[in-house]
Amino acid sequence: MNKEKTRTEAFPARLAKAIVAKDSRLCVGLDPRLERLPEEVREQAESATEALKRFCLGVIEAVADLVPVVKPQVAYFERYGPEGLAAFREVCKAAKAQGLLVIADIKRSDIGSTCQAYAEGYLGPLSGQPEPGLPWVRVDAVTVNPYFGSDGLAPFFEAAEANGKGVYVLVKTSNPSWLELQGLSLPNLENVAMHVLGLVAQWGRKGVDESGYSYVGAVVPATHPDEAGEMRARAPRTPFLVPGVGAQGGNLSEITSYFDVEGQGAVVNVSRSVLYPEREEGESWQAAIWRAAARFSDELNAVLLAAGKQTGR
Amino acid sequence: MNKEKTRTEAFPARLAKAIVAKDSRLCVGLDPRLERLPEEVREQAESATEALKRFCLGVIEAVADLVPVVKPQVAYFERYGPEGLAAFREVCKAAKAQGLLVIADIKRSDIGSTCQAYAEGYLGPLSGQPEPGLPWVRVDAVTVNPYFGSDGLAPFFEAAEANGKGVYVLVKTSNPSWLELQGLSLPNLENVAMHVLGLVAQWGRKGVDESGYSYVGAVVPATHPDEAGEMRARAPRTPFLVPGVGAQGGNLSEITSYFDVEGQGAVVNVSRSVLYPEREEGESWQAAIWRAAARFSDELNAVLLAAGKQTGR
């Protein structure tokens, strides 16, 4: 087996294969908040960061055979400074070791050499030539913020291309105040978010691999299903990351338009509703998490089938 | 002296006093890139993060009597993971110990409890009640990204208000691709950046202290001087952080409109042109940095005086 080739296989193809292999389009968001962790995890840990790590390792163990990808949110780790980032690194490593893809939810962006520092830190050197200490954490993709325009993203794209990684650009978010900026209407009557999606589709044009999708993806919400079809049409080669289901109010049955007829092109992220489920009598916290994840994953497949989209291995 | 009161004195007042005390409106950006550090610093350090730290401590020592504020850029530290953040924490601590204000250039934002995690991590608990481990680093203000709208910033504002800190919201940036999003024209003919500035002014309205400025500031560029006066008029109580001078092409004489008649209301950031100056024969690297910072600081005062604005103690 050619190690070199495996290492640099493009992210969209790896994600598409993992979706087929697991027959799941669910991404489990790792948003560990100390006060919400199971008591037994908190009691056994000697520090907050230790508790966060143990919890996430337990979640990873529970869902590894079920879902293709997890999305650790760096903010919950960064809150604890260097010790938090060390835990973040171990969580990402454990997920990779269990065969999961990892989308680091960092939402960074900046310009010039500053942006390059972020890109190299999370995705590896821009040249694809190994460099000691880069990246500092092993992930498959990151989320980024488009406010700077392409200057604030180009180093991420370059590092992704060089190292077989992916980049999901924030396009439209699931919070009420999305309207204040993303929702501004432009003279051509489209809003800023739709305009940004058009840019994302352009930026990703040359990065399409054999899966039919680009390494430049978009974060789009589950909370505005009326626009899902329009967004898919506007960016047919752009893989979508769809948060907002569960605690944030989005409904699985309304987001089928984000997927293509083969049930590819998107993953749906659920965080809180999977991480902190109601436990049945005598059920372990990990079993409850497995059950919640299985339920979302199965429901998503069911609604896709009902919409005439293929799932299954 | 009432410690409690000193600790929670609002950021705008503290910045205004520091500007008067040092008679300087210069912010030194701490953007340490290993390959650009003085040879003697790199040779003496046993690791990259050690070199970064030593360099920044040397810069802080050199400019502490000259400028009111420094702006460490977290990306250059985060590139090295946990060890990098540990160095970042020490750099911020050293700056505070030398009497400098610290603006952490993090450009974060997210929604809900994720945003809260960032806000608490950098600015302290939202309630103002001490909480162990918060914040993980001692800074006076942060930069944030407005793409989410107010939901993605509210926890930062809350933490800033509770702990006497400041928040600078990205409004318009100095890179060419600012046009792609910030430069989009809205139907009323203003662009997205100017609209965001209007929001920033609104968000900061209740946070104005005795200095006449709010704890909600804006990042505006030195590279579009034609708009400086319009921006000041649009947001009269919003303190400005103005990057883009020096390596990025901005010219000091063209940004006087960002300042009020008393020479307050803005600080101008210079990073590369101060950190990596030409050294004169036999000059130490710290002396060269001091000289570069002094030159920018004096020039800025001179152009303000020429524009009829007051400087001096």
Provide a descriptive summary of the structure in words.
Two copies of one chain form a homodimer. The first copy, chain A, is α/β, with parallel strands linked by helices. In chain A, α11 links the parallel β6 and β7 (240-242). Chain A has an eight-stranded parallel beta barrel with strand order 1-2-3-4-5-6-7-8, surrounded by seven helices. In chain A, α4 packs across α13 (285-306) and α7 runs parallel beside α8 (154-163). Chain A has 13 helices and eight strands. Chain A has helices spanning 3-7, 11-22, 39-44, 48-63, 75-78, 81-97, 112-123, 154-163, 178-181, 192-203, 228-234, 272-275, 285-306, and strands spanning 26-30, 69-72, 101-108, 141-144, 166-170, 216-219, 240-242, 266-270. In chain A, 42% of the residues lie in helices and 12% in strands. Chain A is globular and about 55 Å long. Chains A and B meet through α5, α6, α7, α9 and α10 of A and α5, α6, α7 and α9 of B.
Labels describing this entry:
disordered N terminus, 313 residues, 12% strand, 13 helices, alpha/beta, 8 strands
Describe how the helices and strands are arranged.
2 copies of one chain form a homodimer.
Chain A: H1 3-7, H2 11-22, E1 26-30, H3 39-44, H4 48-63, E2 69-72, H5 75-78, H6 81-97, E3 101-108, H7 112-123, E4 141-144, H8 154-163, E5 166-170, H9 178-181, H10 192-203, E6 216-219, H11 228-234, E7 240-242, E8 266-270, H12 272-275, H13 285-306
Helix pairs in contact in A: 4-6, 4-13, 7-8
User: How many beta-strand segments of chain A?
Assistant: 8
Largest sheet of chain A, if any? Answer: 8 strands, parallel, barrel
The amount of beta strand of chain A, in percent, is: 5-15%
The quaternary organization reads as: homodimer
Sketch the topology of chain A as an H/E string, one letter per element: HHEHHEHHEHEHEHHEHEEHH
Report the largest inter-chain contact. Answer: A-B, 60 and 60 residues
Radius of gyration of chain A, CA atoms, in whole angstroms:
19 Å
Separate helix tally of chain A: 13
Strand order of the largest sheet of chain A: 1-2-3-4-5-6-7-8
Distance between the termini of chain A: 24 Å
Helix content of chain A: 40-55%
Mean pLDDT across residues of chain A: 94
Global shape of chain A: globular
Query: Based on helices, strands and strand pairing, what is the structural class of chain A?
Result: alpha/beta
Low-confidence stretches of chain A: 1-6
